[in-house]
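Morning - adenosine-5'-diphosphate inputs below, output right after.
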Amino acid sequence: MAKPMSILFVSSEVVPFAKTGGLADVSAALPQVVRELGHDIRIIMPKFAAVSDRKFKIHDIKRLTDMPIQLGDRTFLGSVKSSFLTNIKTKVQVYFLSNEQLYCRSDLYVDPKTKEAWPDNDDRFIFFCRGVIETLILLGWKPDIIHLNDWQSGLIAALLKTEYANEPLFKNTKVVFTVHNAAYQGVFPKTSFVKTGLPDKAFKLEGIEFHGDINLLKAGLMYADAITTVSPTYAKEVRSTKEYGYGLEGVFKKKARKTYGILNGMDVSIWNPEIDKVIPKTYSAETLEGKLENKKALCDHFKLPYDPRVPVIGIVSRLADQKGFDLIQEKLEDLMKMDLQLVVLGSGEKKYEDLFTKAAKKYKKKVGAHIGFDEELAHLIEAGADMFLMPSKYEPCGLNQMYSLRYGTLPIVRSTGGLADTVEDLDAKPKSGTGFVFEKYNAKQMLDTIKRALSAFGDEKMWQAAMKRAMMKDNSWDASAQKYIELYKNLLKKK
Ligand code: ADP
């Protein structure tokens, strides 16, 4: 094997320590595969309240206790703790940057009482970025690659290219910045700029300035050596229009030559119907009848009548506008006239929580809704449903459609981002299709596509063939991790 590389993977959420979305799944799975391939990869994340010392066997690193981290004229103290992410094959070291005042709260980014971002999120994540760099210096560990993820770690790229440009430890270090969702940018008022520690010259169009504010996603984009997005289609979309680039489309365009779309993989040790530990009955493409037991259990769970001939459509999602819930809202009454059942697991915007709670009360035999976050139920829905609905406005990669394919639960998706890259329409391609795809973001197209899916469900032979094809798709991390490793290597070749 070629020379192993050392890589620091920086993320604000990592399964099983803390999670709000797909970023957490990626931040656990990718490093583990890179480690299996022989590289020294370590992870660093904030020590949120959910990261329990006892549960995760976390220990202190004595020489990294009470490090002073400067934010403008205030000094915060940060301590680093450590644990491991273990699977049957490997162990990846995880560092946690802790500061009780900043991180010990009931939610990662949002105050559950107000549903607004914590008012001091600038402090929380500027502290994180400055703390990560100080940690490396105190550890004396010199990564070849620092791999940043989303706005929460974007500032690190800017700091390394300015304040720390002459730090010998980082002389040959290259920075990769992965965008998991361009809509979340970490925008703060100009008054937060002094806290970053960046030189004045960084507050400009070519730096982190954004309409008079600062933008930490832009910090990552402007200063990283390479940018990746989590699917090839999303890489093109973010530079195409404001709807996708959220005001940074110009920056994405400017950085197009440094940008690579690498599709996320899925963790097949967790999401695999053949070995899934939390579903009532495991099954495979050869034992599809096992899926029906899960369907029955799913209906029982939601107290819905079970009928193998009535298709169950599943949804597991953050209840956010991005995911296309306004389309579902618009057509809910029409859907209820159709011969189907709908099960929804999600939490988020109140208007959508109310929509599904009310629908479950009104249509007791047709709709099941669980408002909340529940990993086990997410598995049961993937295993028990016949179809999975994701009519997203945009979808940087999306994991649930990949889980659905693996569980033989045919996805109904809008053709955007990673959905476009992973699902093929069954009517357009009867021999290779694995789901149902519509182009335009409009409720009628979604409804017509659901009708197509229902009609295909009636053809058992064709449906089962499509299920088998979907289950055979290899969306594991192996191929994608190789692409990241190639990217790291190519960057290191550059002076
Ligand atoms: P995003 O990162 O935009 O939320 P993804 O599809 O990439 O969307 O990833 C979502 C991840 O979060 C999946 O692992 C999905 O199963 C999980 N998830 C989302 N909402 C819930 C929920 N309410 N309960 C359990 N898991 C959820």
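Note: The pocket of adenosine-5'-diphosphate is lined by residues 21-22, 25, 316-318, 345-347, 373-375, 378, 397-400 (CB under 6 Å).

O.
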